[in-house]
């Protein structure tokens, strides 16, 4: 008996990973210290915004197998179809020494590494959201959370399909794994949500947005745009629930959360420097890391990763002196004035525009086929 396949992948019947470096363990277990699973016996969910979000979550479900055109080819030499300035080590001595084939290899490995972290992060989101369904106290939040569990499974599937097509993947970055461990094993439901949806996925959301807006590759553009459309609902949930919850906490409890946010932001900014890629490609790892750390383009890129986190923390009321100081030192405090509703409305619009363009292309193809058939019929008669 073969394994059940996923439709739409052509020859590759299941998600098949070609890890760039050996993965010694096929899994990871972490101790969950939360003993609390909460049931509610009053089923009359009250909060209209959450029920509206649950309703929207139900209506906006989509199938990664057919909404995305998986027959599109990925260019192995430049998978994202972006200029070389987007490559982290562009301009370094190592880059200058490379010929076209080696540069193509760097581009492919960078995309494999980045999308692999998206994939593993999405699995983290899947597990975290399932946990939130268990321990969030209110029934309306559990309803909404259930739709998000399905969204996150779809995101894992979609990034997994992309990496299967690319033919290369990387294991989870150790810093991302450490961060996941912290947020997942905390017994407080809000920390799981804050760490996963506001910080880790907030940063990923900004990265998806940069790719969506810069890539010349239609597959990567559609994939990221559709995931972002779902993420807009996830951020909205965090804003509604956490904004109502945090004023109920003591100043000390809020401060503890702010410290956690500041620390996680420093960690995410400074520690994801793709060292595994440089090592795998046989470059001088220290030299590559210090180049990526200091390159002006990369510094600007890392700042842009905070466009979603900063205004969200402000919105949910975790914006005291420690968080403000951290963001000021990182040079990203200016993002506090980003219009979150505006950018998320744009995320929805972009996904819908891609759908519309695909429908229009299918209609044009059908019309052409009808023309050809009519011409043949006329000729035959
Ligand atoms: Fe997600
Ligand atoms: Fe999410």
UniProtKB/TrEMBL annotation:
InterPro entries listed in its UniProt record: AurF/CmlI, Ferritin-like_SF, RNR-like
Superkingdom, taxonomy of origin: Bacteria
Pfam families: AurF
Protein name per Swiss-Prot or TrEMBL: Ferritin-like domain-containing protein
